[in-house]
């Protein structure tokens, strides 16, 4: 079920308006549609355009992951007879490397005594246990439920290795571990693309179940599919940000700011101005 949160909607629109005003000429004044006298000749067409924009943005995002025209052609062919899913897979291993001892000197302390000053210091010995962590994750488009050889197209893959230390002999990760796959169906998305990878979407206005530009089978079905895709994206993001990235405490990168969607600028906004 799709939930509309009004205050969150206004926050996002206000943020978009502030960003747009930085780009447009100072004489332009984009604002909410409710603040400008207007008339829509065809709200159904407007809804279709917005859905197409949303689908096109998803295709473009997949392109950044490695989705090519060749992949699209193959997957569209597969989707005529089988379901197609995006599958995120990951595995890791962590093995003990060495034990290392290091000494840390404390600040010297001077104490007055009968014959002058007595200087002392404390040397603390720390034992560090070093581990080698290796892993791999991939995003593939797979055909069917149980994808065999030749039933998958790899869009993106990464392998990584990192050495780190702990104060315990207990393995902080998994000696060997394969995570559960994260999967989402994208057959519907492929069915909206033609041979030239253009998005085709339309609302059947003659359908007796078509009530409004929002309440109709086509739009509601796309919203359900988009919600599942968004859920998959959150799960993948959760794996990266909670299970993988915290292992690198000294990477020096600002992941909190670079891995959020709040600063992404949408170049197409349905804004009105007086």
End-to-end gap = 35 Å
**Spatial extent as radius of gyration:** 28 Å
% residues in beta strands = 25-35%
Largest sheet: 5 strands, antiparallel
Total strands: the figure is 7
Which bin fits the share of residues in helices?
25-40%
Shape: flat
Low-confidence stretches: none
Structural class: alpha+beta
Topology order in helix (H) and strand (E) letters: HHHEEEEEEEHHH
Mean pLDDT value: 84
Number of helices: 6
How would you describe this structure to a colleague?
By secondary structure, this protein is an alpha+beta fold. Helices cover 32% and strands 27% of the residues. It contains six helices and seven strands, in the order αααβββββββααα. The protein has helices at 6-23, 43-65, 69-79, 187-191, 217-244, 255-258; strands at 84-105, 109-113, 116-120, 123-143, 152-166, 176-178, 182-185. The strands form two sheets. Strands 1, 4, 5, 6 and 7 form a five-stranded antiparallel β-sheet that branches. A hairpin with a 2-residue loop joins strand 2 and strand 3. The longest helix has 28 residues, at 217-244. The chain is flat and about 100 Å long. The two termini are 35 Å apart. The mean pLDDT is 84.
